[in-house]
Amino acid sequence: MSDSITLDTAKKLIDAAERRAEEIDNPMVIAVTNDEGNLVAQRRMDDAWLASVSIARNKAYTSAALDIPTHELAEPSEPGNSLYGLQTTDEGRIVVFGGGYPLLDEDGDVVGAFGVSGGAVEQDMEVAEAGVARWEELLDTETPQAVMH
C-alpha cells in the first residue's frame, strides 16, 4: 500500500481551509481523501449548501483519480476539445471546475486530495489553496510518518 494522508493531518488541513472560509465570510464544505480518492475527513460549516457535500468530495476524488487540480480540466473538457464529456464519466464523480487539488509528497506522488465547495469557483479555489498551503508547511516541518501512513 502506498503512503496516504492520515486523519490527524486531514483535520489540520480542514482547519486551515475553514479559517480562510471564515475570513472571506463564506461557509464551505471541505473534504480530504486518501491517494485513491476515498474520503478521510469532511466538514460542513454551518449554513454551507447541502449540494456542496457531494461536490467537495467529488472534487477531491477527481484530483486524486487524475492527479490534477480540477480547474485544469475545465478547458480540455469543453466541446470540441480532447476531454469533452469527461464530467459525464466515472458515474458522474468527475468535476471539471476549480476547488480540487491533489496533495503530493516530496517525490511528487499523490498521497491525498483536497476538495472545497460552497462559493464561487474562485472562492472554492482560494479556500482549498489554504489547505494545500498547510499541507506544504506540514511536509516541510514534520516527519513523513507524522503526516502519512
From TrEMBL:
It holds the Pfam family HbpS-like. Gene3D superfamilies: Haem-degrading domain. InterPro entries: GlcG_carb_metab_protein, PduO/GlcC-like, PduO/GlcC-like_sf. PANTHER family: PROTEIN GLCG, SLR1406 PROTEIN. This is Heme-binding protein. It comes from Haloplanus rubicundus.
